[in-house]
Amino acid sequence: MYKGKFPTFSHSILVMIILLIGVAGLWAADQTSSNQTPNQMNGNHRHGSATMERTDLILIDSLSLFGPLERPAVAFPHDKHTQVVEKQNKDCLTCHKEDKGKLSLKFKNTEDSNRQDAMAIYHDNCIACHVNIAGKGKESGPVTCGECHQKKINLISVRQPMGLDKSLHYRHVQAQEKKCELCHHEYDAKTKKLFYAKGKESTCRYCHKEKTEEKRISVQSASHLQCISCHRIKLAENLNAGPIHCKGCHSREAQNRIEKIDEVPRMERNQPDTVLIRASVNAESTKIPVERVAPVAFNHKAHENYNDNCRSCHHASLAACTSCHTPVGKKDGQNIRLSQAMHQRDADPSCIGCHTVKQKSSKCAGCHSSIKRDKNSDLSSCKACHLSNPDGMQKPMTKKEAATLAARLIANRPSEMATTVLNEIPEKVVIKKLSDQYKPVELPHRKIITKLLENIKDDKIAGHFHTDPGTVCQGCHHNSPPSKTPPKCGSCHGKSFNTSSTFRSGLMGAYHEQCFRCHAKMGIEKPASRDCTACHLKKRS
Amino acid sequence: MSISRRKFLGIVGTAGVTAMVGKPSQAASNKHFKGYPNSTGVLHDTVRCVGCRRCEAACSKVNELPVPEKPFEDLTVLEKKRRTTSTSYTVVNQVQSSDGQKSFIKNQCNHCLEPACASVCFVTAFTKTPEGAVTYNPSVCVGCRYCMIGCPFEIPTYEYDQALTPRVMKCTMCYPRIKEGLLPGCVEACPTEALTYGKRDDLIKIARKRIQSHPDRYLDHIYGEKEMGGTSWLYLSGVPFSQLGLREDLGYKPAPQLTSGALSMVPMVVGLWPVLLTGIYAINKRKEKIAAKEQADAVAKAVAEANAKADEKLTAAKEKAQKDKDAAVIREVKKALEEAAKAQAEEGASKKTFKDQASSKD
Predict the structure, then answer these.
(1) ipTM score here?
(2) Out of A369, A502, A516, whose CB is closest to B192?
(3) How far apart are CA A316 and CA A310, in angstroms?
(4) In 3D, which of A437, A456, A465 has the Cα closest to residue A541?
(5) In what helix (H) or strand (E) does residue B317 lie, and over which residues does it extend?
(6) Contact yes or no for B50 and A529 at CB 8 A
(7) B269 versus A341: which is more confidently predicted?
(8) Could you say which of 3.40.50.11030, 3.30.110.10, 3.40.50.300, 3.90.10.10 is the CATH number of the domain covering A166-256?
(9) Strands (E), chain B
């Protein structure tokens, strides 16, 4: 009996031990995993910042100049450091050296000599300062490798791109007393020096590109060198100066606070008031130009007011469009022909590209969003810009003569929209399509047109392009020429899913699609698209 | 490493078939099926959809489904994401993109060109009709609900509340109405023609035309043209399809092709299993037979040996007996002969004597 009992007892003990180890193991694993998360999070809090979004993030990857990085680049919150420096009553020179009268953008350095030195400068100076501050018992920055070189950066850069608009540019012109040379310069390849060329000022970005090239620093470096250096000097003189901190220019709030001047005087750079854009080979040629298509009289002065800066149209330089975009295209203009440069709908600097953007405003979009992209525009809209010259192109013209002709053509062109005689428009249109379910719909036809016309009354583009009294009618009565008596909806839209007109909506679909889209695009909330009885009154039973 | 069951089965099946048959798994599937010619479908232009739920109401009406608690005019139901149920073949869902723009999408059976539900159904309750609709025959359904698991769009539902005759419920694309030359209920009711019924080929053309005419309105993709090998319902959208709740991870392979590898093993297993079992049975049987025979032989041999021994003994005994008998006879004969000889000798002597006597007489 005893012999048989003993193994059973020992077995049960063994099973109990295994179970205990298992449960304890699981519990321990659970504990470590649940402990880990808050630890990690604390760590991130300590080395990162309370706010995850920052405008002042700089990614330090200077060593990438000397080959691939061994450790991840460092996310450096710049404003956080300037705060500390300012608290100690020190200035930018604490970290940045002066180089040729301007602050170097590099840290305690003016030139990246070699990998070893560049690395040493960061490591020695950063760590020394952090240790020093920590020694005083104050909150300080990281000192170990992984704390700076983090694989996963938990900070998000919300830096907004910055640039001068006309208002801000004018404020600088005023502050600098029209001394353009303080900012604008050209590069002389022979003397290898910068010089100022009067009348050739252009946007910084034409020369200073996204990335630093040989003998040409990036737009980022150029603007920081120029702007901050100048702002520092003005600040030192206790004058009204621009920001020197990251967030002063690059945060959305600061950008919104920038003072705006409503009436900015016209820029002075000898730009023409009017231009005659011609598809002829050479405007200055002595030969009588062969005009393939009527020239376009372009109101340059007016368009200056429609845009915030010259770059909107002059995307590469302030030269005339035709100097790069010739009728058949040339290499300088990336082989983009003049016709493309002016008509490309997807390109913002092109005429039609910009006008298409304007069509997206709520007062235009009701009609224009329904116009099919692949539809051929009718010739009347071509004629709105390509004005035929009453005198003809009989003699060669100088630039000045061309501009004068353009001015004359612009002055003669109709400035106001061709208006419809409202009385001739049906006041109401009764739609009986769903009269089996509802009362017939009384469409306030004249009221709709009146409202549409009122919306665009002062719109210059609309006035210019709505050439026919019937153009506005085409918003709904599409695909038919402008007319006082356009076809009815039912003339084209009939029974749904008719196999003989597969691509055409049925009448009910066409009505709803047209009404809903226009209302949505124009921001008209009532009647709501899903409130059937707002339009279709209930039948009295 | 994570691997889905379907993928795993696919790999195992493909590997198995490749190893055993030596041909790619597609050999077992109808790879080049491009749908029935002139089959019809519906194009759902979600850009046109305003989320009025008229399609839901029409669906409920034409399919004679029970009227829901909240009326179809109640648009607050759109605030929650819904899925199809056994009493609603179609539901409209509303999604709000980050810029606050609302989009709507109508969910229902997509009527795949090569339906997963039909391919998993082992009683063929589902049929892809040449008209395009995937129809269901409740009379053969055994209620295994494989179709519900197989459907990548989570469409078929089950009448769990029907104790005796539960059915799988899903959109029929109004097959009976199509047969009558009518439009599907939802399409007929849609006020904006966000639903277009027609030949699938035409629908693709219409969709392409719309994208071309309004490139800023639509994404350049027709959902369902290729997804899961193509579906009879096609979708156009201005926001990413995944935002609308349409799966973009399905790939372009039809569902049956994904499982054909594994499923092509089935005939082999079904076919070879009996053969194998019969073989094993036969081998076992043969073994038994041989053993029995061997045993019988051994027995026979033993018996024969015993018999032979016994015979030998008997013969020996008999021989001995014979010998004894013979010896006895011989002996007796000898004895008799001896006796006779003796007697003869005695008689001779006496005769001699007599002869002598007689000769003497002569």
Answers:
(1) 0.74
(2) A516
(3) 10
(4) A437
(5) helix B265-361
(6) yes
(7) A341
(8) 3.90.10.10
(9) 40-45, 91-96, 102-107, 126-128, 134-136, 157-158, 168-169, 195-199, 233-236
The segments of chain B whose pLDDT lies below 50 read 1, 17-28, 358-362
Angle formed by the axes of helices B5-21 and B265-361, to 10°?
50
A176 — pLDDT class (breaks 50, 70, 90):
confident
Residue of B nearest to A434 (CA): B191
* Residue A96 tokens, joined: 């940045």
Average pLDDT over chain A reads 83
List for chain B the helix, strand, coil content (%; round to 5).
50, 10, 40
Q: Which one has a higher pLDDT value, A448 or B99? A: A448
Task: Write the secondary structure of A266-294 as one string of H (helix), E (strand) and C (coil).
Answer: CCCCCCCCEEEECCCCCCCCCCCCCCCCC
* Architecture field, domain A422-534: Alpha-Beta Complex (3.90)
Query: Closest Cα of chain B to A529: distance in Å?
Result: 7
Comparing A123-127, A333-337, B37-41, B337-341, which segment has the lowest mean pLDDT?
B337-341
Contact A392, A294 (CB under 8 A): no
A373–B216: do the CB atoms touch at under 8 Å?
Answer: yes
**Residue B180 · residue A474 · CB < 8 Å:** no
Give the CATH number of domain A274-411.
Answer: 3.90.10.10
Q: Which of A7-16, A73-82, A162-171, A366-375 has the lowest mean pLDDT?
A: A7-16
Residue (of A431, A421, A529) closest to A472 by Cα position: A421
Tell me the per-residue pLDDT of A466-513, one tens digit each, with 9 for 90 and over: 888 888 888 999 888 888 889 999 999 988 887 777 788 899 999 999
Place of tokens 């594994």: B262
**A94's tokens:** 């604490």
Q: How many residues does chain B have?
A: 362
3-state DSSP: chain A helix, strand, coil percent, rounded to 5? 45, 10, 50
Sign of CA dihedral A47, A53, A56, A60: positive
Show residues of chain A in contact with B206, CB under 8 Å: 502-503
Nearest to A530 among B50, B197, B212 (CB): B50
Residue A67 CB neighbours (<10 A): 8
Q: Select A24-157's CATH number: 3.20.20.70, 1.10.10.60, 3.10.20.30, 3.90.10.10.
A: 3.90.10.10
Residue range(s) of every CATH 3.90.10.10 domain in chain A: 24-157, 166-256, 274-411, 422-534
CB-nearest to A497 from B192, B198, B215 is: B198
Total beta-carbon pairs less than 8 A apart between chain A and chain B:
52
Span of A38-52, A154-168, A265-279, B33-47 with lowest mean pLDDT = A38-52
Task: Tell me B101's DSSP state.
Answer: -
pLDDT of residue A443: 92
- pLDDT band for position A243 (cuts 50, 70, 90): very high
- Cross-chain residue pair A505–B51, CB shorter than 8 Å: no
Please report where in the chains the tokens 């000889």 appear, as a residue.
B341
pLDDT at B94: 94
Query: Which one of B40, B45, B77, B192 would you mutate to disrupt binding with A, by most A Cβ within 10 Å of its Cβ?
Result: B192
CA of B52: which chain A residue's CA is closest? Answer: A530
Inspect the interface and report whether the beta carbons of B192 and A375 lie closer than 8 Å.
no
Tokens describing residue A119:
């690395």
